[in-house]
Design brief:
Elements lengths: L6 E7 L2 H13 L4 E4 L5 E3 L4 E8 L4 E5 L4 E7 L4 H10 L2 E2 L20 E2 L2 E2 L4 E8 L4 E6 L20 E12 L8 H9 L7 H15 L8 E4 L5 E3 H10 L6 E2 L5 E3 L2 H10 L3 E2 L4 E4 L2 E7 L5 H19 L8 E3 L1
Parallel strand pairs: 1-4, 2-4, 3-20
Antiparallel strand pairs: 5-6, 6-12, 7-12, 8-9, 10-11, 10-12, 13-19, 14-16, 15-16, 17-18, 18-19
Helix pairs in contact: 3-4, 6-7
The chain binds flavin-adenine dinucleotide (FAD).
Flavin-adenine dinucleotide (FAD) binds next to strand 2, strand 8, strand 12 and strand 13.
């Protein structure tokens, strides 16, 4: 968002040993630490961070083929995520092609269990390696112990800030992706008469869809989707349907619970292609869920604009939107 204060100390780490050294130094100085990738999912508070920011540049890429079909790829947490997707797709591997073009580092993907177009990292991640800042040891954590759920894990939940992830291992298949695909993706495939599917065809389709809807964070200051899609009960859905029978919604797999599109709620609450002159913030014309910093002076401006949206949606639909990017420190 190009907003927020400064950090007292910052260090780039390229190896596990450098990470250990950085943690030891900060511990000695009694300073708090935060490990980051590129900061695409962080809103920094205006008051800054009186601690050590550890910028992750730990690189690694190892591909192990168990047999013709099953590949295990171990990736350094500092690798650029989209380059990882590009590389595995080029090798004909399927499993993460729908996660194309998500900004950030590989090591951040388990933190909020990144997901898009019907895939999430929890589906392919088998284990990860992390430095446990409590026990001061490297540990291997299997996927089943990561506490993965929709946009969450133990790393942004109960154990927030405890583990610094240094590598992730994914199980990918040497195979073509098969339908059913996520509705938006399927529509793009139909519209473009695409009827045979390879990892690379799906990656290209996802990139085309994303480029048409989302601003490039290198050019336009934004955090991607600013709100998670809310999960509500059947009663709330029925109340909204009384006025809006066509509201889109998805099954969650949990009885009586449905997921609503946050973008739809934001638009209907009056924020479609909206510029707020008081805060200098706006919503992105092609996707109202993306808040854009046009001329905001501070994170306080951003949070004021966010609150206007949250209040308007709550008043109109009785649904509370939850912010997706993390407010730090
Ligand atoms: C335009 C745009 C589109 C986006 N689209 C999507 C999308 O489709 N789906 C989706 O899920 N997300 C999306 N995001 C959010 C973001 O890309 C992901 O959350 C990404 O994984 C963040 O990576 P990062 O390196 O920038 O992490 P950061 O923003 O630097 O960090 C995010 C959090 O993870 C922690 N963290 C980072 N690295 C580590 C590590 N190695 N060990 C421990 N903790 C760590 C940080 O402390 C922080 O809490 C989008 C963002 C933008 C700007």
């Amino acid at each position: 968002m190009r907003l927020g204060g400064t950090a007292a100390y910052a260090v780039e780490v390229t190896t596990r040993a450098e990470l250990e050294e950085a943690v030891a130094w900060a511990t000695e100085q009694s300073l708090p630490m935060i490990m980051v990738g590129i900061g695409s999912n962080i809103v920094w508070k205006d008051e800054g961070f009186n601690g050590l920011l550890i910028i992750n540049k730990i690189m690694r890429f190892e591909d192990f083929a168990e047999d013709d079909a099953n590949h295990y790829v171990t990736i350094g947490s500092g690798e650029n995520w989209d380059s990882v997707v590009e590389r595995t797709v080029a090798a004909g591997l399927t499993g993460i092609e729908a996660l194309s073009l998500i900004p950030g580092n590989a090591g951040a993907t388990p933190v909020q269990n990144v997901g898009a177009y019907g895939q999430e990292i929890a589906q392919t991640l088998t284990s990860l390696e992390a430095y446990d800042t409590t026990t001061k040891q490297f540990v291997n954590i299997p996927a089943m112990d990561c506490g993965f759920a929709y946009r969450s894990s133990r790393f942004n939940g109960a154990d927030k800030g405890r583990f610094f992830i240094t590598a992730i291992t994914l199980h990918l298949a040497k195979a073509n992706p098969a339908p059913p695909f996520y509705a938006t993706l399927q529509k793009y495939l139909d519209d473009n008469n695409i009827t045979s599917f390879t990892p690379s065809i799906i990656r290209d389709a996802v990139i085309a869809i994303r480029n048409s809807r989302l601003p490039d964070p290198a050019v336009v200051a934004n955090n991607g989707s600013f709100f998670a899609n809310p999960i509500v009960d059947g009663g709330t859905l029925a109340q909204i349907q009384a006025d809006y029978p066509d509201i889109p919604h998805w099954d969650t797999g949990e009885p009586g619970k449905v997921k609503l599109p946050a973008a739809w709620l934001v638009e209907k609450a009056g924020f479609k292609d909206f510029y707020d002159s008081e805060t200098g913030m706006s919503t992105w014309p092609a996707q109202a869920l993306v808040l854009v910093n046009k001329s905001a002076r501070s994170t306080a401006d951003l949070l004021k604009f966010k609150q206007k949206i949250v209040d308007a949606v709550a008043t109109k639909f009785n649904v509370t939107l939850v912010q997706e990017p993390e407010l730090l420190p």
